[in-house]
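### Sample
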Amino acid sequence: MKSRFLICALVALALLVSACGGGSAPTGAPATGVSQPAQTSFPTVPTATRAPNVPSGSAEPLPSASATRPAERPAGELSTFALDVDTASYGYARTALKDGRLPDPGQVRPEEFVNAFRQDYAEPSGDGFAVHIDGAKASDATALLRVGLQTRTAEAASRRPANLTFVVDVSGSMSDPGRLDLVRDALHTLVDQLGPSDSVSIVSFSDEARLRIPMTAAGERGRLHEAIDTLRTEGSTNLESGLVTGYQEAARAFRPVATNRVILLSDGLANLGDTTWKGILDRVEDYAGRQVTLLCVGVGREYGDTLMEQLADNGDGAAVYVSSREDARKVFVDRLPAALDLRARDAKAQVAFNPATVASYRLLGYENRALAEGDFRDDSKDGGEVGPGHAVTALYEVRLRPGTSGQLAVATVRWQDPDSRQPAEASRAVDVSELSGSLWEGPSPRLQVDAVVAAFADRLRRVDGGVFEEDLGTLAGHASRLAAATEDPMVTELAELIRTAGSLR
């Protein structure tokens, strides 16, 4: 039973991979072709040297020295990044705190914390994205800006067929409870939920990779269940060999009319073959051909977060961490309506700040997804793969110019149609007057939840300064208040996790 929920996780996972995305509805219909983006050419204003960070006030530091705070950027510089719907960082931190330990600060990624939570964005009427942008003042001189991107949901019955290649880690480290046992039962459940037009292949790896069953119609459930039952732990972790074999099988069985996915299930503790994400992805580049996307499902108390995250970010995919029946139900079963179809390929965001109203800004997270300004409209540059009904949120700390008014920023998203590769864009602008007057009074509850989550991530990263001056006790109080307002169990749990982190200082 315990692992049955993991595969529901996997089902949703398989479904979730093509379903990355996010945001909120812009004024008017979202673009379905290359639209004229909102005006982003602002008048030049002399920019002083980088402003000092906002004092941390009563911020309650976690153990050890504070990390270096990511640099603020002058308003004249565009903020450009690839969309990312990973949530593994929050899932692993949540598990660590429930085990009575603080997560490694280097494994805390604010964007994955925020994107793990439900948003309140309206969906577009058609394919592509709706753009949402709002925010609130944290003081007279600073504000928190939220950019949300949302795709339209899809009916599960209308999705295209799925070709799923599962690459399963069966090395000795997967023998611990909550690893291969969850994966095996999850795969059994997945097989029973797939439709007659779907197909599954299974590759296992330890010292070497082994094709357990080639691409097989989901209707042949008996054969698939037998292959799953043969998965047993042994040997070392040659993740490179497993992924190469998996991509070879996915390429061999590639169906143009289907959604083609490689789904890696592992604790990420590679110790044989090439153990670097770049070396591994270089080996599968010819097979992937940007036609097969990757989903990394992390399991286990000891978890190779960096390798799994980089494989996902650079392999046209996403990373999710699953540790328990409850976690699997919350992350996957509840999100099962997200279908395998893609809404957008190589999706990127670019935010232009008005130097007349903004002195500087700082994007919270997305360090591993940053792009050069010129990469935004270069469709040869990799972005994020986004599927139906998903939201991507980006938060910015903004330093305002004194007594400012007028346009604050313009957010633009660019993507390619999954089939035709035709590029399209949608934009939305926000004015200073649209900001709420106080971060904790007036904004929507979901914006406030995002603020609590981002501030919590900063505390776990041991980063001081910025717009968040609240200590952990205050953040826990905000989370409890917002849990009542949203009636969201995840927000209730968030308050408990923040209190736990405070007790572990």
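The chain has twelve helices and 16 strands. This sample (DUF3520 domain-containing protein) is used throughout the tutorial notebook.
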